[in-house]
Amino acid sequence: MSNTIRLCLVLHNHQPIGNFDGVFEQAYQDSYLPFLDVFDCYPDIKIGLHTSGPLMEWLDEHHPEYLDRLAAHVKNGRIEIIGGVFYEAILPMIPPRDRVGQIETYTKWLTNRLGAKIQGMWMPERVWEQPLTADIADAGIQYTILDDFHFKNAGIPQEDLYGYYVTEECGKLLNVFPGSERLRYLLPFAPAQDTIDYMRSVADQYPNSVLVFGDDGEKFGTWPDTKAHVYDRGWLAQFFELLTANKDWLLTTTLAEATEALLPVGKTYIPEGSYREMTEWAMPAQQQVEFEDMVHELEHQEHWPQIKKYIRGGYWRNFKVRYPETDEMYCRALGISNRLHAAEQNGGDEKLLAAAKKELYRGQCNCSYWHGAFGGTYLPHLRNAVYKHLIAADNLLDKAEHKASSFIEAEVADFNLDARKEVRLEDEKLVALMAPASGGTIYELDVRSICHNLLATLSRRPEAYHRKVLAGPSASGSEVASIHDRVVFKQEGLDKMLQYDTYQRKALVDHFFDNNASLEQVALNNAMERGDFVGSPFEAKVRRNPDRIQVQMSRMGNAWGIPIKITKGVTMNAGSSSLEIAYLLEGLPQDQVLHFAVEMNLAGLPSGADDRYFHQAGGNKLGHLGSQLDLHEVQDLGVKDEWLGIDCRWSADRPTSVWTFPISTVSQSEGGFEMVHQSVCMMPHWWVQGDAEGRWSVVMQLDIDTSLAESRMPKEVRESVNAG
User: Fold this and answer.
1) 216 carries an active-site annotation
2) What is the pTM (predicted TM-score) of this model?
3) Catalytic one among 30, 88, 125, 215?
4) Residue 626: CB atoms within 10 Å
5) What sign does the dihedral 567-572-573-574 (CA atoms) show?
């Protein structure tokens, strides 16, 4: 047949930094390995393959024979290895120097391990901004793939999307292929013949064109129900059989071959964006609901095809607004990148700086910075992993800069880029970041010996898909459904578990409740807030001594209309892994009792396990970390995670009532809707009354013991940690 087309099949295989080893292995067995086994049987078929750096490193360690097979296919020209950002960072989220650095570093790794010539790259989550063109070109990349959705937003009609385009920034050129949304939804969910028929229709109308499929390799075995469909029932073999049978007009080629054989269709400049679904997820929840309703209303109308091309969702960077917790990670990573760049300019220890750069790059892995059909931001182990690598980078920079083995420092600056000043208080054991303008809270608390942020929390907030939760699970009408269409409950009663917070779940959140407020009301965030201290600005000052620094924050506010001043001090001593937290309340009535509470959330300490529990002095265990406790007349409480090797012990200088309860979210993942434990809330509370001067005070201590974790470290690592 004379009407030939080229099909470029490009798979993107990825597992994020911090994912469980068993998840990597399962994906390998369910998807990556069986795909290659089937591919081996069809020598006429060529593909492009992008494997993210975290996954590639894991494969090199656990299944090097798989990479050897890839290298053989690279050598015989059947697989083109597509490069990219080593640790799969969203490019607009990292500085230009890190964009170029990550791409170049991964190109070198792939060349050395697989013998690949890297000419193209995978654009993480297809998040695009036009200025990226120059950085990508500077990194030695000639072409990449975006979605046809991007090109339509640039005004290019569907009939002109059967090739590739060139774009430009500051005189630097990049070829860009439009990935077909139609193919993304056909493969592998529709019968294989449907895809062939679609491509036949394209060949008849647009001969000598290029069709690009660029999507997750996990669709072929890892996504729910796809393993049975793709392999057990033979969909992939059927598809490859059909590709082979139609090779007289349907040529499977690599992106490199397409650029060599054909000139660009034209030149274009592409607006910022991502794939269509991602732009919808980036919008605020209520706007998502309105957007979905509008689309459902219009899509059955006659003029919808003409209207659709002008419909766009939100801006990817606003995930940092939707989820302030991800903005905290972004700001932390940016600060470390700036510090690393300065250290490189000053000629620091090259070996330590190289190690710090690798940790920084790992901490830029995108998955926990956003949320859509996947867990993303809602998965604590991914957020914990980001902080693990960022804190490790910070520790390495301390060594590269030859910081003293024992020190204490305080710095005032705009660390979270909100045009307000924060305070960073640190010694060789802890880093505490405080936000006086946001309720005088501690919003990050790094335990440096185990590279763990105890305040990598996440608040409960509305999501557009929560209306699906309220509607209940539904069965898919097809044999195998796209991940975007499934409504599956991974546990019962999720519709009863939807709860929302009106503030960020951090430490030193100051509440005034009704005197008869209950644990249940507070845990559900249904207790009436009678004060104006939560989220309100405090004034701050730093008091310094050579071995001791205190950050003092105060606010003149009110509770029940009564003018009250809260002053709280957070004190750190050099060489200590403890925080002293002192509260002074002034203006309290002497003839009235007020109910005052201080909220502290601890993250990265899962619930429901026997080796993670509350305890008191003397070893008395009080239940796992998902327990609701209503304690009275106590002066200490510990939160211990034996697996992580940390024991956080709170104590007070006066008898105290303490509530504990878990913070859990109802969120969406590949497998369906599920309850996810986010943090442990520990809330000491008192019924306070003013003394003769209208004052009341308490001094608390938060001691963080990681001796168990350190005892399990190799000797050289333990000595390195203790040396700071």
Assistant:
1) yes
2) 0.95
3) 125
4) 16
5) negative
